[in-house]
Design goal:
Enzyme class: oxidoreductase
Number of strands: 27
Bound molecules: flavin-adenine dinucleotide
Keywords: Disulfide bond, FAD, Flavoprotein, NAD, Oxidoreductase, Redox-active center, Transit peptide
Family: Belongs to the class-I pyridine nucleotide-disulfide oxidoreductase family.
Helix content: 25-40%
CATH topology of the largest domain: FAD/NAD(P)-binding domain
Number of helices: 11
Number of domains: 3
Radius of gyration: 23 Å
Strand content: 25-35%
CATH architecture of the largest domain: 3-Layer(bba) Sandwich
Protein name: dihydrolipoyl dehydrogenase
Shape: globular
Largest sheet: 8 strands, mixed
Distance between the termini: 35 Å
Cofactor: FAD
């Protein structure tokens, strides 16, 4: 099949190609994104029919969502021919019906064929695929369209990282000299950088909303609650509820920052990623609690903008979620040469925000002995200790579903499992809310997989073929099992 992309200098891009045969191609290319000002997260192409180019996704979003012009622009892009081995070429390509601007007609006796609760990237991906398949589709959103990724996640963070990458380049005298460039001290305007990230998020949010409206998805505003099988209510606080029925329902309610007990978030000096992305301040010294990909990306931004960073990590090594080999290399490149120090094997058991001229105070406790270990005084603390599913108030008790640490239990087809271990008919959960793989493009792929199933084509998503990336400078990308995981995987088998 053919793929069109634009090539630039040093940027690594992961591409994944899902074929109906459920095999996936992964390419790593020295490539940059189309016209975005932020680094691209991943680009996946669903080869469902010959018009696959319209399925190009950014962070799980459709090509149209970030404002890309598909066909006309694509001619300018480099063309790559990917020839699948004959044995894995699908015999019969699944056809996708043309988009219906009238949003189909619902199956008899239901208001909709499909209702999705939550208009993040997971819900958006599912909605667009559903109308392409001719389903009468509605999406219920309690806040703003775009969810975490567009408003408080991938998009603004990648916009800030695009700035940090350029700052690093401009600050690299040796590199500039080698290019024959003379650059005076690089500086930045904090508010303008913050505005850039915010404007990009709102542009993509509008594009996302418009793409759904254009295809005829009904966007229903209000918090959604499941009342019983195939029935939900939604509504705004202070207004009467609306009750609707649907043949199938997808829960796509996403996640929120997880803040451990003992940590007091004031949104100014003790913050989560939600606050940090607004870049209201660039603290001189910031402690980042948690060294996963979110903490690592923020360390890249903060150090490029002049902050000193201290990581606090509960496990014995930094970046515990990464393959140890990658972790070691990343430490050499991303931590050691920068103004970053760290405490590992400790919990931040108490964090008190700055007040009355006093700094933020962080009490560290030894993770093994549980004895107090140290106290830090810093200008700000960013809590990057993971994400918690947002499933409260969804009415899961009305259908006998019990969450597991807040996550909705699902099988490999994203079908919801009830408290007795039985599948709940016509109910699915995708994205961060099921906890299988908390990434934007995974949420979107799960949504598409569910739509395939409800329209009569069995489909199981292979999560091992979904790539993940950390958009530091340089970037880290990975796919499949780590060495450690693969050992336990094969022992279990
Ligand atoms: C700082 C940061 C950077 C990230 N960077 C990347 C990245 O580079 N690449 C990547 O792949 N992923 C990244 N992620 C992760 C990514 O944002 C999430 O995996 C993704 O947004 C999950 O999508 P979702 O559709 O499951 O949920 P969400 O995007 O969280 O959307 C859920 C939506 O449901 C709505 N909702 C919730 N409950 C209800 C209800 N009862 N009724 C109605 N509406 C409801 C919410 O308001 C929200 O709009 C990042 C996350 C963060 C925090």
């Amino acid at each position: 099949m053919d793929l069109y992309i634009q090539r630039d200098s040093n940027h690594l891009l992961s591409l994944s190609f899902s074929l109906p045969s459920r095999r996936t191609y992964i390419l790593s290319l020295s490539t940059y994104i189309f016209q975005m000002q932020a680094s691209v997260s991943s680009l996946s192409i669903s080869y469902l029919n010959s018009t696959f180019r319209s399925n190009i996704r950014f962070c799980g979003l459709r090509l149209e969502a970030p404002g890309f012009q598909s066909d006309a622009q694509l001619n300018k892009y480099q063309r790559i021919r990917i020839v699948p081995r004959k044995s894995i070429l699908p015999k019969r390509l699944v056809s996708v019906s043309a988009s219906t601007s009238d949003n189909g007609s619902p199956t008899k006796s239901f208001d909709y064929d499909l209702v999705i609760i939550g208009a993040g990237v997971g819900g958006h991906g599912a909605a667009l695929h559903a109308v392409e398949k001719g389903l009468k589709t509605a999406i219920v959103e309690g806040d703003v369209v775009g969810g975490t990724c567009v408003n408080r996640g991938c998009v603004p963070s990648k916009a800030l990282l695009a700035v940090s990458g350029r700052m690093r380049e401009l600050q690299d005298e040796h590199h500039m000299k080698a290019l024959g460039l003379q650059v005076a001290a690089a500086g930045y305007d904090r508010q303008a950088v913050a505005d850039h990230a915010n404007n990009l998020a709102s542009k993509i949010r509008n594009n996302l909303t418009n793409s759904m409206k254009a295809l005829g998805v009904d966007i229903l505003t209000g918090f959604g609650t499941i009342l019983g099988p195939q029935k939900i209510k939604y509504g705004k606080v202070g207004f009467p509820d609306n009750v609707i029925t649907a043949k199938d329902i997808i829960i796509a309610t996403g996640s929120v920052p997880f803040v451990p007990k003992g940590i007091e978030v004031d949104g100014k000096t003790v913050i989560t990623s939600d606050h940090a992305l607004k870049l209201e301040v660039v603290p001189d010294w910031v402690a980042i609690v948690g060294s996963g990909y979110i903490g690592l990306e923020f360390s890249d931004v903060y150090t490029a903008l002049g902050s000193e960073v201290t990581f606090i990590e509960a496990l014995d090594q930094l970046m515990p979620g990464f393959d140890p080999e990658i972790g070691k290399l990343a430490q050499r490149v991303l931590i050691n040469p920068r103004k970053i120090d760290y405490h590992t094997g400790v919990f931040a058991t108490k964090i008190t925000p700055a007040e009355d001229g006093k700094p933020v105070i962080i009490e560290l406790t030894d993770a093994k002995t549980k004895e107090p270990k140290d106290t830090l005084e810093v200008d700000a603390a960013l809590i990057a200790t993971g994400r918690a599913p947002f499933t409260k108030g969804l009415g899961l008790e009305n259908i006998n579903v019990e969450t597991q640490r807040g996550f909705v239990p699902v099988d490999e087809r994203m079908r919801v499992i009830d408290a007795n271990g039985n599948l709940v008919p016509h109910l699915y959960c995708i994205g961060d809310a099921n906890g299988k793989m908390m990434l934007a493009h995974a949420a979107s792929a799960q949504g598409i997989s569910v739509v395939e199933q409800v329209t009569g084509r069995d489909h199981v998503l292979n999560h091992l073929s979904i790539p993940a990336a950390c958009f530091t400078h340089p970037e880290i990308s990975m796919v499949g099992l780590t060495e450690v995981n693969s050992k336990s995987f094969y022992v279990i088998m």
